[in-house]
Amino acid sequence: TSTVLVLGIETSCDETAASVVSRDAGGRGEILSNVVLSQIDDHAAFGGVVPEIAARAHVEALDRIVQAAMDEAGVGFGDLDAISATAGPGLIGGVIVGLTTAKALALAADKPLVAINHLEGHALTARLTDGIAFPYLLLLVSGGHTQILLVRGVGDYERWGTTIDDALGEAFDKTAKLLGLPYPGGPAVERAAARGNPHRFSLPRPMYGRPGADFSFSGLKTALRIEAEAIAPLSETDVDDLCAAFQQTVTLVVCDRIGHALDRFRAEFPDLADPTLVVAGGVAANKALRAGLDAELSARGFRLVAPPHALCTDNGAMIAWAGAERLALGLHDDLAASARPRWPL
Ligand code: KG4
Ligand code: ZN
Fold first, then answer.
1. Residue 1 — very low, low, confident or very high, per pLDDT cuts 50/70/90?
2. What is the DSSP pairing of strand 82-88 with strand 113-117?
3. How far is the CA of 15 from the centre of ligand 2 (A)?
């Protein structure tokens, strides 16, 4: 196989994104363009993403975002080898906008369509940015997902851990809302936590020490609300201290869960020279969490690979790249591919 050129479209949440990526015969990738339009301002007043507003915003923006990605890459539709789009999981209105647009482009340009699982996009990004080899472990922590995945190969994944209720980013966002901090909550909670005392409040550590690698965050949110109500009205110091306790607790829980997964990975691949954990998703930007993970990994001889922040959060390059990886294996889809709100890897 030779170099392939793929356009990728991502519309499953609140980013309207398109990108052109190439992949050569040796598996090396290059990002030719990566255009992301965030809808954060459209949703901020509601404290979270409103699906109907998101879908309408994707309709309004997608044409020009795709054109911008093509222009920036300096290619025409005839130059492409495939067109890929997120087909799920995600907010279904937005997914339909992106997938239908990709189908129309694929039909008009007579190119294959590659329907991508959004999680696969996150899972394969580190191969684009860091060229890492299979197998590796992935910790995906975003507003919509909290998962630990074994990545054995393209299309070959095993879910070792998932949240039984809220996603980690969602827990940060809900904590922020409860404490009167702005949306998105993660960065606001992190800033407040940096000023706070993590030892003033003691919060439960859901799933800590349990076998397996699953997560739960909803009980933590409830415990935090009860602490906050008991001392209301909250001073700035109270908010800082509550954020510090929350952040420290989730860091301990995530490190515990990851520790279990690292041990299992070691047991399954005892001869692997360079065992690697990849982190992805918006929450991976959290410095306290990263420090905790670093310690956990070095204690076990694992390497941490963290793609640049812009490629950890939702973007088109991860979808284009997943499309290129699939295409290189001869995998693509027909125009009947359907949009799926739920789609476990
Ligand atoms: O991956 P992402 O941009 O979008 C999806 O959810 O797909 O992740 C956004 C999430 C939000 O919940 C946001 O609050 C959280 O990532 N986040 C953070 C930080 N930056 C973003 N959480 C904790 N600490 C941060 N610094
Ligand atoms: Zn995502």
1. low
2. parallel
3. 9
| Structural domains of the chain ordered from first start | 4-130+310-328 (3.30.420.40), 136-309 (3.30.420.40)
| Closest approach atom of ligand 1 to CA 170 | 12
What's the one-letter identity of residue 118?
H
- Looking at this predicted complex, what is its ipTM? 0.98
> At residue 90, what are phi and psi to the nearest 5 degrees?
160, -170
Q: Does pLDDT of 47 surpass 80? A: no
Ligand 1 test: best mutation among 14, 142, 190, 247, most atoms within 8 Å of CB? Answer: 142
Average pLDDT over residues 74-88: 98
pTM listed for this prediction = 0.93
Burial class (CB in 10 A: 0-12, 13-18, 19+), 267: exposed
Cα gap 24→281, rounded to integer Å: 26
The answer, yes or no, to whether residue 105 has pLDDT greater than 80, is yes
Q: What is the pLDDT of residues 232-260, one digit of tens each?
A: 999 999 999 999 999 999 999 999 999 99
The yes-or-no verdict on residue 155 having pLDDT over 90 is yes
180 is in an annotated binding site: no
> Which of the ligands is closest to the CA of residue 189?
1
* Ligand 1 site residues, Cβ closer than 6 angstroms: 13, 142-144, 169, 172-173, 184-187, 190, 281-283, 285-286, 313-314
